[in-house]
Amino acid sequence: MKRLFSIALLCCGWVVSGASAAPESPQTVSNMPQHDVVQSVPPATNRVARNIILMIGDGMGSEHMWAAWLCNHGKLNIERLPVIGLVRTPSASDTITDSAAAATAIACGYKTRNGQLGITADGKPLDSILVQLASTGRQTGLVVTKAITDATPAAFYAHCKSRYHFSAIAAALAESGCRVIIGGGSGIVSRAWQEQLRAAGTLLRLEGHEHCLPASRRGSFLPDAVGEALRTLESHPQGFFLLVEGSQIDVAAHANDLAELVHETLDFDRAVGVVMEWMQAHPDTLLIVTADHQTGGLSILGGSKENGEVTAAFSTGKHSGVAVPLYAAGAGAAAFGGVQENTELMPKMLRATQTK
Ligand SMILES: [Zn+2]
Question: Does 17 reside within a domain?
């Protein structure tokens, strides 16, 4: 019977290969810290965006969000944003992207090879959205929970053949002109570069030798840092560009650690809530919440929003190739609906800041 089935598949032109592996064992998580969603949901408008806030959940697929949604008793801030899109993630070299190529596509609007930062596939340097908006007089900020020199933030300020050239990346950070830099990496960015940034007026706060603690032990570091960044940047008359990364969603998914993954995703959602509340008084702001790729190949197999419980299984310890969700609100948000390539986000952000 099995043999007949194989033949039938071949006749239809299908090719099926690989062993039929047993699914990874499911994990069940409950009793996660709860949070209420914010009351104010920013609408999508046709205004010109003075400020852009780009929030990237590293490795955050929709399954990660829905796992967190179940654990938070059926509510998340992110899911309430009015515009929904999907973003394709392959890089110039691979169907499965890494964070360096994905961040380069989002930041600079070009596909590059896995491992490369802020350069085209054949090595030409690119100006990121951060650099282009700084050139219009806007202030810029970076808030992350892994090292500030890690691939995602680095694609916004560095040009590098390898995401692992940390001293070159830290040197580029020192020259970035960012007004706010908060994250991990106090042992990676040298004292001299830290002093250079502070002397230039940067609000610089680096925790942890390399990365910040995981969300289960980090307290409210990320939501607090986002609030601090907004208070610092909001008075600038020309507006600002702020990148916020929920950096360790990816780490928990690589480790196939469902509990930590939910902690990280809920923490990221609280940071989104801080922005949503702030936007009430700042409607000339575009908010985009998305991911660079999906990590872990998570599947939700059960759970209950009444009990705040999820059962899920990972299918890989690596990244997967699915399109990732995008949510948007505020000035120019409607342009981000539908299915799009990750390279389309940068030109769309730029257009949102331009008078029609
Ligand atoms: Zn990863």
Answer: no
15 found inside a domain:
no
Tens digit of each residue's pLDDT (9 = 90 or more) over 227-253: 999 999 999 999 999 999 999 999 999
At residue 277, what is the residue type?
E
Can you give the residue range of the structural domain that contains 241?
A: 26-33+43-352
pTM of the shown model: 0.94
**If you measure from the C-alpha of residue 208 to the centroid of ligand 1, how many angstroms do you get, rounded to a whole number?**
20
| Percent of the chain whose predicted confidence (pLDDT) is above 70 | 93
Cα-Cα-Cα-Cα dihedral sign, residues 158, 188, 225, 198: negative
User: Within a domain: residue 119?
Assistant: yes
Would residue 20 count as lying in a domain?
no
The strand order across the sheet containing 27-29 reads 27-29, 309-313, 299-304
For 293-350, give the DSSP string.
Answer: -EES--EEEEEETTTTEEEEE-S-SSEE---EEEEEEEETGGGG-EEEEGGGHHHHHH
pLDDT, one tens digit per residue, over 179-203 is: 999 999 999 999 999 999 999 999 9
H helix or E strand, kind and range, residue 274: helix 258-279
Element (H, E) at 29: strand 27-29
Separation of CA 172 and ligand 1 centre (Å) = 23
Structure tokens at 113: 């090879």
State in Å: Cα 50 to ligand 1 middle.
Answer: 32
- Cα-based angle 194, 115, 162 (whole degrees, multiple of 5): 50
Distance 230 CA to ligand 1 centre (A): 27
Ligand 1 mean position, distance from CA 318 (Å): 7
Alpha-helical runs (H) found in 19-165: 62-71, 99-108, 129-134, 151-154
**Number of structural domains, the chain?**
1
CATH number at residue 256: 3.40.720.10
